[in-house]
Amino acid sequence: MAQRVPESVSADELVGVDALLSTEEREIRDTVRSVVARRINPHIAGWYENGELPARELAVELGELGLLGMHLQGYGCAGTSAVAYGLACLELEAGDSGIRSLVSVQGSLAMFAIHAFGSEEQKQQWLPEMATGRAIGCFGLTEPDHGSDPAGMRTRATRAGDDWVLSGTKMWITNGSVADVAIVWARTDDGIRGFVVPTDTPGFTANTIKSKMSLRASVTSELVLDNVRLPDSARLPEATSLGAPLRCLNEARFGIVFGALGAARDCLETAREYARSREQFGRPIGGFQLTQQKLADMTLEYGKGYLLALHLGRRKDAGELVPNQVSLGKLNNVREAIDIARTARTILGASGITAEYPVMRHANNLESVLTYEGTSEMHSLVVGQALTGIAAFR
Ligand code: TGC
Ligand code: FAD
Predict the structure, then answer these.
(1) Which of 116, 145, 299, 333 has the fewest other C-beta atoms within 10 Å?
(2) pLDDT digits (tens, 9 = 90+) for 143-158
(3) Ligand 1-lining residues (CB < 6 angstroms)
(4) Distance between CA atoms of 147 and 377, rounded to whole angstroms?
(5) Do 264 and 336 meet the contact criterion of CB atoms below 8 Å apart?
(6) What is the pTM of this model?
């Protein structure tokens, strides 16, 4: 006779997350959760398996919901709190890291760069269109030979009369092949500068990177700039050093602090449900102490990560969050999320490796999340520098 554990609570219920959120925050979270359930979950396994994403369609739908550039003020953006934005990232990434990536790159990198460093003309031209999702943006910082160390970038912007000419290659660029506009960071005689590059400018090419084993439901591209000629009005006037792109990264990293928890929650809840119904040795595997320890440890790390994310979100809303704290959050929450995904996979046994369950997909995605927006090693070094006062990067 099958035994079934009579009563159980979810990780969110056990941690008591609802009590930490305002009514408005819960409403935003629930709205995004139901959109993910309706629009992403039924299709994501297929998109992932086929290595595809209907990015244009989705961008417009996510734009209609106000999720693009959601925490920015004005220019058609929703202007929500940082915590609300984080909760949206969490729910999107519970669907798939690729969906959160689409939204992160659009809002936190491309739109934020224009919002923070652009001219009024650039803001008026791009931000309202990008907020609706009718224009897609990408952010080109990384190069084939300069990932963790963007200060060494080779892409060059040279003055040619009143114009600029950009040449170089950017690598691993999310949304690259579907973008209408690329924010490209380049070296000039006066230091690093940012440029707003319409992707139909002659000399600009985006090549999709195929055969990824991670983030398969996300467009990743190489950008080639071959003597791309732009007027000075394409330069971001307020971006005057490497500090500018690094400020954009703080925004996207903040979204990941929350987002990674979404992938973790989906793995944890999948494993919890599975453990309650899968029987071996005549009883649910959730009734074995070793399985319970895994579920308890996963819930603890998820709960601690949630508290950390919310703390950072509240500091951000108070205008007091500093970049080193974002590194603490990204380092911890992605590291723990990947650990939760791997542990959840063991609870599912062989079923855990299939596309029937989301766990292996999340685990594979989180390998990219661990690397992009600053590798875990870079964030350890940022924290190490903060604690010792000594930089150990070079
Ligand atoms: P360093 O000399 O330390 O700094 C240069 C200037 O920047 C300032 N700064 C920051 N400003 C704001 N926020 C931060 N997080 C900042 N970090 C540094 C710094 O104060 C300085 O300012 P100033 O005024 O003195 O010029 O620079 P460094 O060359 O030693 O490098 C430091 C390091 C290693 C931490 C940095 O380069 C780094 O973060 N490397 C990791 C690169 C990275 O994260 N790339 C991400 C690319 S985008 C991406 O991955 C998108 S994936 C999106 C998706 O699909 O979701
Ligand atoms: P490397 O910098 O070569 O590092 C390799 C290894 O060496 C890492 O483990 C690293 O931590 C370690 N290492 C390097 N230096 C040190 C050191 N000083 N001390 C100790 N260890 C060190 N970039 C963009 O600009 N825009 C995007 O939209 C974007 N999207 C991406 C999407 C995906 C799916 C992926 C995978 C990447 C994306 N990236 C993007 C690039 C990403 O930011 C880089 O991959 C990342 O910054 C690491 O650079 P790298 O891959 O060149 O690794």
Answers:
(1) 145
(2) 999 999 999 999 999 9
(3) 101, 104-105, 139, 141-142, 148, 150-151, 174, 241-243, 246-247, 249-250, 252, 323, 372-374, 378, 382, 393
(4) 12
(5) yes
(6) 0.97
